[in-house]
Amino acid sequence: NSYSIAVIPGDGIGPDVMDGALEVLAATEDIFSLSIKYHHYKAGAKHYLATGELWNHDLAQQLRTHDAVLFGAMGDPSVEPGILERGFILAMRQAFEQAVNLRPVKLYPGVATPIAGLTPERCDLVIVRENTEGAYVGQGSTIHANTPNTVAIQESVNTRQGIERVVEYSFKLAMNRRKKLTLCHKKNILIEAGKLWQDVVNSVATRYPEVNVDYVHVDAMCFHLPVAPEKFDVVVTDNLFGDIITDLGAVIQGGLGVAASGNLNLDGSAPSMFEAIHGSAPDIAGKGWANPVGAILSAAMMLAHLGEKAAAQAIEAAAVNVLKDLPALAGPGMGMSTTEIAAVVSSQIRTDF
Amino acid sequence: NSYSIAVIPGDGIGPDVMDGALEVLAATEDIFSLSIKYHHYKAGAKHYLATGELWNHDLAQQLRTHDAVLFGAMGDPSVEPGILERGFILAMRQAFEQAVNLRPVKLYPGVATPIAGLTPERCDLVIVRENTEGAYVGQGSTIHANTPNTVAIQESVNTRQGIERVVEYSFKLAMNRRKKLTLCHKKNILIEAGKLWQDVVNSVATRYPEVNVDYVHVDAMCFHLPVAPEKFDVVVTDNLFGDIITDLGAVIQGGLGVAASGNLNLDGSAPSMFEAIHGSAPDIAGKGWANPVGAILSAAMMLAHLGEKAAAQAIEAAAVNVLKDLPALAGPGMGMSTTEIAAVVSSQIRTDF
Ligand SMILES: CC(C)[C@H](C(=O)O)[C@@H](O)C(=O)O
Ligand SMILES: CC(C)[C@H](C(=O)O)[C@@H](O)C(=O)O
């Protein structure tokens, strides 16, 4: 129970929520006798503007020496959209073979969801998004550019092995949950990719006969997820569909403020990365209006991934508890500041465990 | 004001809701002195199982002789998913160059939306979905099939001309509405396709200086659309993203029962096609539990497209009015049967106009 963690606070509210997560981790260390060493790294919009540096070999080598990467948020209006996303986030996901993007969709008690009548008991699912291939490979070509006859082709590349590792992970996860797995795709239209996904699910399913398996088109998923989230337990899907339906999941659970995510390397070849799914929100940076719970829950997910289940559960319990008392999930009306929330969560861990 | 309409009732509840739409059209004919000739065509799951026929040259030739196609619903569990979708619906969209899939997202008074606190004034937008290209071209390839090394590539093909006609249409539509246009894409990741879409929007925008133009990523759209639909007026997007966000739109407006759509040919080279967006729901066919309002509003959209704006508005007003009195939008608790709803809408058109 000795860990070395790379910390990348990033831009905007990234450092604010990271401070909160680190304070909570410190409380957890004491109570659960963990020993965590942190090493801070600079990256993000500001760092890029100052140095021109994005993801690079040196940084990758340094990050590889740690057990996990804890990430704040990245982005600033002064950097063109796409630069940091592709130049850093996707680059890390691919270089570190972070095969799974894990996104729990859980409505916590006392959190206001925009879905009328939805209760926490009905909303507890996990979306497993393939995180390294599909449309995110960025392959394509444009011919006859700048003529009336331009054709732009964008490719989605899907490999059996890439899908298999994610599907295998999803079945294992389902076995530890309600034993239901839903493949989300658009196989009636994307016939090549859809067939491979369905084939892999069918073949892995034979090894998990207890898991109830079904299939839902991505358009139908948008129809069912908001009004009947109780239909889903583990949803496994491709990179692009996952990007889309996890944001829908975040709406349902009450917003980006509380949503956590893990970018999981499954074979131990490189560290996994954990981040709240909100953006860098530069307009409210430093104001105390950012909710650190997404970052705190991402830290909990990191501990669970490192095998520290009890510590992870303690953090989740304490963080969820504070949500009940917040009149709003972010902004000036949140009722507590970023640091106050982190302090309350930390002291609850110290007193309750 | 003399029209010839091809009618394809299709499967399941398709014939039920089509009967309703035709009754309402008959009332409208009398009041607005239109003369509409109908020609019924067989197509769909049952017809395919009986004859092996899908979309074909003969049918296309016959349908081309009409001013528009009115479509019920298609599909049955006994036909493998994908066969009718690709073999008929996509085939028609492509053969008839139905460039635009037009999907109003409008919350009507008295309709229960699952979004807490959403009011009709805040929810009135139109999604313009490109309907003939993108990922729907069905191009791709699979190599090393049935080996551990399978790779499935799926292509999205986007042409400047295909995008231009849809974007041009969207700007015109925005000029007749609140003069706001939002491009929805994922241009930070799908760089080839995204760049072409953004280029076309930028260049067409110069001819519509009054229109306020913005851009939202498809994942962010899923985040904003449910809670802040008032941010949007005309949303233009590609075929696949359109498929996804229009279903989300249908949730917000209270369900598939009331959602209408048009597959618009913009150059007069072939007929346009109008259909409710719900499926064939074979389990409730013939029971009187299907809501014909989606089909009725699709018929209104057809009349509007044919230039009969007053008649279209009369149908919409009468159909919307009946929605106020329905305790549920479909099923046994709808309060009125399919035929009763059609009768009420028809008689209201006869008395009010
Ligand atoms: C920042 C961006 C590259 C990213 C994505 O598209 O995957 C984000 O939307 C996410 O979901 O993590
Ligand atoms: C039936 C199917 C081919 C279709 C689509 O994917 O376009 C449907 O979902 C729609 O939105 O019209």
Automatic annotation (TrEMBL), chains A, B:
Its cofactor is Mg(2+); Mn(2+). Pfam families: Iso_dh. Residues 4-345 form the Isopropylmalate dehydrogenase-like domain. The keyword NAD applies. GO terms for molecular function: 3-isopropylmalate dehydrogenase activity. It is an enzyme of class 1 (oxidoreductase). Transmembrane segments: none annotated. SUPFAM superfamilies: Isocitrate/Isopropylmalate dehydrogenase-like. PROSITE patterns: IDH_IMDH (PS00470). Its EC number is 1.1.1.85. It comes from the Bacteria. SMART domains: Iso_dh. Keywords: Manganese, Metal-binding, NAD, Oxidoreductase. NCBIfam families: PRK03437.1. This is 3-isopropylmalate dehydrogenase.
